[in-house]
Amino acid sequence: MLSLAAVGMIGCWKEASLERFMSGLNFSPPGAVAAAAAVEALPLVANSVSSNESHDDHHSNFDRYKHLGHLSPFFVPPNTPEWLKSGTPPGCTASRAFLIHRHGSRYPHGDELPVIQGLADYIGNNSALFSSPRGPVPRAWSFLQKETGWRNTLTLGVDDLTAPGRQQLFDHGVALRLRYPDLYTEPDDDGAALAVAGDEDRVVESASWFLAGYHGRAIASSASASASASGRGNASTTPPPPFLRVVPEDSDTPSWITPHETCSAWDERLGSDPAARWGAVYLPPIADRLNALLAGPWPGVRFTPAHVHGMFWACAYGTAARGIGVSMDEAESGSPWCDVFEPGEVLDNEYEYDLRQRGFSGYGLPGDMGAVLGGLLVGNVTAFLGQGQGQGQERVFSDEDQDQDRSGKEKLLSLNFCHDKTLAFGLTALGLAADDAFPPEGPVDRHRSWQTARLVPFASYMLWKRLECGEEGGESEGESSGGGSGSSRIQLVLNGANYGLGPTGCAIDEYGTCSFDNFLDTAKVKAALNVTHGDAKWREVCGDA
Fold first, then answer.
1. Apex CA 340: angle with CA 144 and CA 67, to 5°?
2. Contact present, 289 and 306 (Cβ < 8 Å)
3. pTM
4. Which of the four, 90, 125, 360, 520, has the lowest number of CB atoms within 10 Å?
5. Can you give the C-alpha Rg of the chain in angstroms?
6. DSSP string, 129-182
7. Which of 35, 288, 331, 44 is nearest to 176 (CA)?
8. Region annotation Disordered: residue ranges (predicted)?
9. Within a 13 Å sphere around the CA of 435, how many CA atoms are in the beta-carbon half?
């Protein structure tokens, strides 16, 4: 899976690159890099984008790569709400942390490839037309008049992690190690599990790359040996690396990473209907505009709404496979399709991604399904952060190796690797990123809270921290610390930005944190902690367990 040579190649960054990814974990790097870190935070990895962005329809200010929904390359968004201060409250230090990390950028799902291939087939069947334009070709479309035209190269791997995806996870592992040295636990000689991962190859590989960045070449060596021993790369058939606890993703295994798998009433198609309804509204006008634009150089061109949909996916997955484009030459990087759309069209496509995600893993799920499925995540987070205080509920698939190493030393950092749905369920259970309305036919609220590009892009993560605060730190307006000289608080860092916990019902400070006890006492959290897999509430929402 990983080789030392491969890790070495990815490890050869410039100092500026190191600064970029460490900034995404609210980190001011030490030593020689610290001075450079005073400059405004840069993107986290090479195919990321900056965080200072507004919904501006001017080409010069519009960054389309931050609007590809859950298929966006990782970037650090603004704090939520934006008035929050970044970092940790003065006088507070992290005593425990629970990381929930989505896999990195991947190739398309199998059911998405036919749509992209349909576009490629249309272009290939009309190669004579596209290679012999009868007039000036718009610059964004010049790639079609090349002798080779455009070919779909995204069939190289279905669902597999891409090269940018591997780099995202490796870089995040390095950043976390440097940001929280006091939470680090040295791997023991008995091969105890260092992390938990869902049983999908892209998730297991993501965890392996992260741990290679976090722990170094000893972990990379064992990962490489594990992959070589089997000769296969599919997580469902390959023995997992010895340092990973891999949890099955099936209908027989209760798991907070994939709780929907054991919920018989859940169906991924729950997001398809609202997405299709919006597609019928926004795709035809784009097809009409493109056909009118291209009628001069290519008379008779007839792109359909389905072709337009394929173009959007070719943009997103071309970016996932090759990184953000730096030129019109597709062979260099990126996808030429990203530049053929107007900013407003990209934003309309983004709304489709948001509708779909919200429909199958968020507030669009029927009844209390989203809150129930996400409640298992809340239970795991609070159980780990509350250890030593008698707080939190017993976890689903409780893993003692995550709490204590073989020598008996307590672990202060829990590492978990998952899917976008995992994070979305958790947000929903806590009432975060909620909107009053989300109409499938529009109009589109450009300032909506549920924006999957900001919430669950590729390599997205939740970092939940328990903070121990002295007298000067972490007291919210109108809230007593309750502990005199110190108190425990909870903070959520979502994709490198502080995310305020106020919607749960707790009183937050200017960093978005609230008292741990206050958090546990809110109605949202209490409801989440009252959910147990297979109990009456679960059966009411999901049917028989």
1. 140
2. no
3. 0.86
4. 125
5. 23
6. HHHS-SSPPPGGGGGGGSTT-----GGG-SS-B-HHHHHHHHHHHHHHHHH-GG
7. 44
8. 227-257
9. 17
Angle between helices 15-23 and 163-179 (to 10 degrees): 80
Task: Please name every residue paired with 94 in a beta bridge, in sequence order, or none if there are none.
Answer: 467
Residues 497/77, Cβ–Cβ less than 8 Å? yes
Chain CA centroid to CA 63, Å: 18
Residues with Cβ within 8 Å of 463's Cβ and at least 6 positions away in sequence, in order, are 25, 97, 98, 99, 100, 176, 492, 493, 494
**DSSP string for 386-427:** TTTTT-S-PPTT--HHHHB-TTSPBP-EEEEEE-HHHHHHHH
**Could you give the percent of the chain with pLDDT greater than 90?**
69
Q: What is the pLDDT of residues 296-353, one digit of tens each?
A: 999 999 999 999 999 999 999 999 999 996 544 444 568 999 999 999 999 999 999 9
Nearest CA among 99, 75, 95, 79 for reference residue 87: 79
Beta-sheet pairing, 497-499 with 514-515: unpaired
Residue with the two structure tokens 């891999």: 246
Please write the tens of the pLDDT for every residue from 132-153: 999 999 999 999 987 666 877 7
Structure token pair of residue 95: 């005593």
Bridging pattern class, strands 497-499 and 487-494 = antiparallel
